[in-house]
Write a structure and sequence with these properties.
alpha+beta; Immunoglobulin-like; 3 domains; 5-stranded antiparallel β-sheet; elongated
Length: about 325
């Protein structure tokens, strides 16, 4: 209704509620592209739709009904050159605009019939995205990223530069992940790039199957990392070596002194707990200072090792809404 529209609902209406989820779960990244980009910037080159620096092996039409004739003609050329075209839920059947509308619509329907109707047509039609798309895609092309074991809560974005293949990987869950990730690349060296420190770490390559590279992937809860594949050769001085042995964590949960703001009142907490557990601080509002003295072992002080504070799993704070009288 007017005033209650959201971007998520609009995207679901245009793309379908399960299309993006099925693409990511199957190991494929995606971009959005429109008629203008295809017509003005798109070039068909050896089974690839090239749009500036981006190159697409698969084009999906998510429930598209209206499409300019010139766009569908370019997509037909893309298919004839070996590209993969998939229409979901319905095939293009109408041309936009009023000028020559009937004539243009007839041409759209004619091209659609050549592409999608018949026993041996060059394009694919998927009626049910939720059930069929995840099975069809791997049969057409190897996934860009395959996770073992499968992890639907890990997403990625793949970008290509003139010298490298760049992957942004993100863990959307509240649990740490340690899995194997196989990338559809070969003959390139993978490195972890830290955008905050500028450091580069060599990635641990577990296997090199045909036309692929398997890397050990570790992600913190809600964490993300950047993996770069390239053919460049780095000097040893430029690469920050990860430590061979990761020491056990240091438990800091016991023996804290807590001082509550301007009151000056200090308490000793054998185990950290909520302020509301004590009667005297249950309704305290303000700042509190936590103090603890501890010794850092030498095993935690070594080149290439990052030390982080883990505050544990947080507890959601309830929202209270009061109706005005």
């Amino acid at each position: 209704t007017l005033g209650n529209a959201t971007v998520s609902e609009a995207m679901d209406n245009l793309l379908g509620p399960r299309l993006i989820a099925r693409l990511l779960e199957s190991g494929y990244g995606f971009d959005f592209i429109d008629d203008t980009a295809i017509n003005q910037l798109g070039k068909v080159e050896n089974g690839v739709l090239a749009v500036n620096a981006n190159r697409y092996l698969i084009v999906i039409l998510p429930g598209v009904e209206r499409m300019p004739v010139v766009t569908l003609q370019k997509l037909e050329a893309f298919v004839r050159e070996g590209g993969i075209l998939i229409a979901t839920r319905r095939t293009p059947s109408l041309a936009p605009g009023l000028m020559d509308g009937e004539t243009q619509t007839d041409r759209v329907r004619e091209i659609s019939r050549r592409l999608f109707e018949g026993a041996s047509v060059p394009a694919r039609f998927v009626k049910d995205e939720d059930r069929e798309l995840g099975q069809l895609l791997p049969s057409l092309i190897v996934p860009d990223v395959t996770l073992s074991p499968p992890a639907g809560d890990i997403g990625f974005v793949h970008r290509r530069s003139t010298f490298a293949e760049v992957y942004f990987l993100a863990n959307t869950s509240n649990e740490a992940r340690s899995i194997h990730a196989t990338f559809r690349l070969e003959g390139m060296t993978p490195e972890w790039w830290d955008p905050f420190t500028g450091k580069v770490y060599p990635a641990s390559v577990l296997a090199s199957p045909p036309r692929a590279t398997t890397v050990a992937l570790e992600l913190d809860p809600y964490g993300s990392r950047i993996l770069v594949f390239s053919k460049r050769r780095q000097s040893r001085a430029a690469v920050a070596r990860a430590p061979r042995h990761v020491p056990p964590p240091l438990d800091l949960s016991a023996g804290w002194k807590v001082t509550f703001g301007s009151t000056g009142r200090s308490v000793f907490m054998d185990r950290l707990r909520s302020w509301t557990d004590d009667e005297e601080t249950r309704f305290f509002s303000g700042e509190a200072a936590y103090e603890k003295t501890f010794t850092v072992p030498e095993s935690l002080i070594q080149p290439g090792l990052e030390v982080r504070l883990d505050f544990g799993e947080g507890t959601p704070v309830p929202e209270i809404h009061r109706d005005n009288p």
